[in-house]
Amino acid sequence: MKVKLIKFKDDVQFPQRKHYNDAGADIYNPELIIIKPLETVKIPLGFGLELPDNMMGCVYPRSSLAAKGLVSHIPPIDSGYRGEIHAIMANLSNEDITLCSNERIAQLIITPVYICDFIEKLGEERNEGAFGSTGMK
Fold first, then answer.
1. 129 vs 77, 125, 132, 133, 134, CA distance in Å?
2. Domain 7-112 architecture
3. pTM of the prediction?
4. Can you spell out the DSSP letters for 54-95?
5. Using CA atoms, how far apart are residues 58 and 107, in angstroms rounded to an integer?
6. 3 state SS of 14
7. Do the beta carbons of residue 65 and residue 91 sit within 8 Å?
8. d(CA 104, CA 74)
9. What is the rounded CA–CA span in Å between residue 7 and residue 11?
């Protein structure tokens, strides 16, 4: 599958995989940022995506940074969204965390989703009975 990238900044570093079969593509920090303990920051990444319908993206934490207390929130990037993507990073440690310019800070993962209709009734009603409650012995 190919996903079109949208450039919002001239000097953007697009996501890229270190290995061809990595689940996530590395996302890079655009500028020096210091995140204080228990602080959450929204980092504009300089790019957007054109995802096909029934697909979504999420910015996941990198395990090496998560082990130090820096995690990424993972709200979904909807297929219809065409704006700039941000990494929402939270410092859960007791120390400042410095992110250098062009440092890998998170990973972008694209996954399929089921688009469903929510209804009140669906076919035959079921109850909580089990172990022979349908009359079969």
1. 40, 12, 8, 5, 8
2. Distorted Sandwich (2.70)
3. 0.83
4. TEEEEEEEPHHHHTTTEEE----B-TT--S--EEEEEE-SSS
5. 8
6. coil
7. no
8. 16
9. 9
pLDDT digit string, tens, across residues 102-117: 999 999 999 999 999 9
Domain ranges (residues) in the chain: 7-112
Burial of 137 (0-12, 13-18, 19+ CB in 10 A): exposed
Question: Are the C-beta atoms of residues 85 and 47 closer than 8 Å to each other?
Answer: yes
> What is the C-alpha to C-alpha distance for residues 18 and 108, in angstroms, rounded to an integer?
12
Work out the burial of residue 100: count CB atoms within 10 Å of its CB; fewer than 13 is exposed, 13-18 middle, 19 or more buried: exposed
